[in-house]
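Input:
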Amino acid sequence: MKRLHRFFQTPEAIAGALILALLVIMALAAPLLFPGDPQAIAGPALLSPFQHWSLPLGTDRLGRDVLAELFHGARTSLAVGLTAAAAALLVGAVVGTMAGFAGGLIDEVLMRITDAFQTVPSFLLALAFVSIVGPSLGVVIAAIALGAWTGPARVARAEVLSIRERDYVAGARVIGMHPLEIAFREVLPNALPPVLALSSVIVAAAILTEAALSFLGLGDPNRVTWGGMIAEGRTVLRTAPFLSIVPGIALVLTVLGVYLAGEGVVESTAVRRSLS
Amino acid sequence: MTVLAVSNLSKRYRRGGKPFAAVDDVSFEIGPAETLALAGPSGSGKSTIARLALRLLEPDAGRIQFEGADFLALSGAALRARRARLQMVFQDPLAAFNPRSIVARVLDDPLRIHGIASRSERPRRIAALLERVGLDAGLAARAIHEISGGQRQRVAIARAIATRPSLIVLDEAVSALDVSVRGQILELLLDLQRQERIAYLFISHDLGVIRAVAHRIVILDAGRVAESGDARTVIASPQSAIGKALVAATPRLNRIKTP
Ligand SMILES: Nc1ncnc2c1ncn2[C@@H]1O[C@H](COP(=O)(O)OP(=O)(O)OP(=O)(O)O)[C@@H](O)[C@H]1O
Ligand SMILES: [Mg+2]
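Output:
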């Protein structure tokens, strides 16, 4: 409770939390407010916003409801962003823990692999992966996670290197605990806080990468995405700029919200640390 | 019959590029239900010997016989199984436990790992262990940071005896405790030794404590054995220079000796 209270003390954190809450509500409410296929034709093509009460944000080139697309797009952005970030954090934490805890050759090999992934720009990696395997939601998530796990891996390794010298790790060895159990049950949970501090940046980057992939036509074709909407609107940018602007604003606000809320969490835990 | 026999043990580190011996050709034996004290100034290699004996560190040379078998020949699962018989209590009882754990988990781990009690049986075993070290069984549900330093060291002892070891290494195990608590913990250790016939490798810089609990003493100087023998005899009339210095640096001891 105290932590929650401290979190809500800065206006940035409140703004971030509000934006995220709105996004989650949009994502959850999408199938209720806009049942049926958001990609189905709902009215005349290229209807401007605020012209018709049942289509408040107008329609796109094919006559699809922009508001419905926006809500369903929130679902995709959130699902991809959160899942890809979770996968990246999980893989990174596991790889970093194994490297730091095992040391020696295992450390050497794992860190060379991490280096290799890190030298390739993560967007190119995602692009290449989706082009080869083919666009679907799972592939997009994997592609994004592929370029995002190296940061968490490095942070986890550094933390594990310091934790493994502590007495309680020696104590776990003395009672005969298996090295894998020591690594993942005793060491990893205590190495997590600095790794989790990366999550807001990773979620924000994942949402942007997903949008960029969709913009290039490499998103899941069966799902509405904000990146895809921007790409759609580009062809009629002069006559109907709102088609690109509306999802663009949604994207910027979402990334901003994730970032602000993440900063709020880091700040409130930092205060807690300095207090104790 | 010896529990632990260490012979010609050596461990070298590098300091500023130059190799130096933290432990240099050290030999000693510990019998059942015997307490052997390791004394010596800071940096003389006491903790390094403890870590070598526990296979937390690998020696550069020497042999370790534990319960009549070559302890250095063991590895993997065989070594982990053998560890049940050779336990340790650390100096800082807070650092010795996972900061996230609760008392029950700390005691549950050794029982589970060595298959000493079934899952349903373990809570009763844990309560019995807590009572054995003079703690209330209700403490089991507490987080490790929610109990006092003295209670924590009792939990550490309970963890060490959970697997019925023949030897416990105590590295400055009472140094961080208040004088009154220290007396109680020493009393508990002596009591356990009498009842369970546990041997102790007792590391301390406090000759007063050593004289009260140890049968024999090994005094180290810069990684080498300076002198060894019956604890009371050596402390009463040390032969080595380092032994004399250690005795001279323990004023309480001198005061007790005068009358
Ligand atoms: N990992 C290491 N790398 C390099 N040198 C080390 C390492 N561990 C210990 N040493 C050195 O080995 C020597 C012996 O250290 P050790 O910890 O065994 O001393 P000690 O007798 O336990 O001292 P204290 O009474 O202060 O605990 C010291 O000079 C120490 O600096
Ligand atoms: Mg020491």
